[in-house]
Design goal:
By secondary structure, this protein is of the alpha/beta class. The chain has helices at 14-25, 51-69, 93-100, 109-121, 168-174, 247-253, 259-266, 309-326, 330-359, and strands at residues 6-10, 30-34, 46-49, 75-80, 86-91, 105-108, 126-129, 134-139, 144-148, 153-156, 158-161, 179-192, 204-209, 212-219, 224-232, 242-244, 274-281, 292-294. It binds flavin-adenine dinucleotide (FAD).
Length: 388
């Protein structure tokens, strides 16, 4: 496709930024990102990047930056909520590198965002406009007109909706599809590792119990312990999905759990305890129209039990850019992208939901007795977005 076409990306999250970089690396010269928030930012939490994601990011030229900012756990374990007994062990580190040819990393989300922003800042093909919330799209024969909340308009040949779960782009194309409460609430926090008497070993540990789980892993070269605590909850009718919580509220969820968990909760900084109502949306069969296409959570939001949402979004970025570079017209490129991505993304969405049910089953004692269908054993790590 002509590298001078005007491409508009809605949303400067991990998907939008990765997509812009992937397009610029393939020679596209006019890439405009519109972000609703007045400034770029990620939540104070960690992010797991499987080799499927790091392979894509390394291919975008970010290998050195990732190596400098990421932690690479040598192993991960799944433990029993009460006894702490190890139920399952997952090889990481050199085993993953040797098997998949790319690393398994954990990183502070703000650091990941920073790596992408730094790379974009060096690239004159990409421009980011902040404080631009998309209201509506109008398609025409040439492409699409974007209408923003301040009534500014912008014309583009191609629009890529990377605006997350509550995607305005998706809504303007296919009508409103309600984002429903998944039945899970997540607490996220970062705890200074220095507050612990011993280093977390192995550096990634998941505790599972009935209707609850508690994940801890190291980021910032072992300086911080990222925690993700997820519990089943009743209907969610509060305004907003990210709300301040309290350490007491979190502690109440884990009453009777292993002392490692209770100790970790005691160390959560009071001002840094937030909770998220995890929402999901019905899968949509088609991700594109004439000039507009969806990627990342806007196309396929998922519950986080495989830690694959951002990784899948990064894969989308690379495959979509390749499809646009390879094909002469939008229809063929969008179809090629969707054909390459839809089945995989839908599979990961479904597997993530099922994994949540297994991890929080009524019988944690038997977990791991059969071969667990994890992102590794399902073969998800092997995906190469540059050859798919
Ligand atoms: C508890 C939890 C843990 C997770 N852990 C992991 C993990 O370890 N590994 C992993 O791979 N994934 C993980 N995920 C999933 C991951 O966070 C998401 O899949 C990923 O952030 C999606 O990126 P995105 O860019 O598609 O969407 P988002 O991150 O939602 O970004 C969308 C962007 O679009 C902007 N926007 C929205 N509407 C508009 C508009 N109308 N106009 C302009 N801009 C707009 C937003 O402000 C935002 O910047 C986790 C999720 C949760 C809830």
């Amino acid at each position: 496709m002509d590298r001078n076409i005007r491409i508009a990306i809605i949303g400067a999250g991990l998907c939008g930024l990765s997509t812009a970089l992937a397009l610029a690396r393939l020679g596209f010269r006019q890439i405009q990102i519109f972000e609703r928030s007045p400034s770029l930012g990620e939540v104070g939490a960690g992010l797991t990047l499987g080799p499927n994601a790091t392979r894509a990011l390394i291919g975008l030229g970010l290998g050195d930056a990732l190596q400098q900012s990421c932690d690479e756990p040598h192993a991960g374990i799944t433990r029993h909520w009460k006894t702490g007994a190890v139920l399952m062990r997952s090889a990481r580190g050199s085993v993953i590198r040797e098997h998949y040819g790319a690393p398994y990393y954990q990183i502070h989300r703000a650091d990941m965002l920073d790596i992408l922003v730094q790379a974009i800042a060096k690239n004159s093909a990409i421009n980011i406009k902040m404080g631009m919330g998309l209201l509506a799209t109008e398609e025409n024969a040439q492409g699409a007109v974007l209408i923003f909340s301040d009534r500014q308009k912008f014309s583009a040949d191609i629009v890529i909706g990377c605006d997350g779960l509550k995607s305005s782009v998706s809504e303007s194309l296919f009508g409103a599809t309600a984002a429903n409460f998944s039945g899970y609430v997540a607490w996220r926090a970062l705890v200074p590792a220095a507050a612990f008497s011993a280093r977390l070993e192995p550096p990634a540990q998941l505790f599972i119990g009935i209707e609850r789980l508690f994940m801890r892993y190291l980021v910032r070269h072992g300086e911080l312990i990222n925690i993700v605590a997820i519990a089943r909850a009743q209907g969610w009718d509060e305004e907003g999905w990210m709300l301040p919580s309290t350490v007491e509220e979190l502690r109440a969820q884990y009453f009777g759990w292993h002392e490692d968990i209770l100790h970790t909760i005691n160390l959560v900084p009071v001002e840094q305890c937030f909770k998220w109502a995890i929402h999901v949306r019905e899968a949509i069969p088609t991700w594109y129209t004439n000039a507009i296409v969806l990627a990342g959570d806007a196309a396929h939001p998922m519950v986080p039990f495989m830690g694959m949402g951002a990784s899948t979004a990064i894969e989308d970025a690379v495959v979509l850019a390749r499809a646009l570079a390879l094909h002469e017209d939008r229809a063929t490129a969008f179809l090629a992208y969707q054909t390459a991505r839809h089945t995989r993304a839908s599979f990961i969405q479904a597997q993530s939901a099922q994994r949540g049910l297994r991890l929080m089953s009524a019988d944690p004692d038997s977990y791991g007795a059969e071969r667990e269908m994890s992102e590794d054993s399902l073969g998800l790590f092997a995906y190469d977005a540059f050859s798919a």
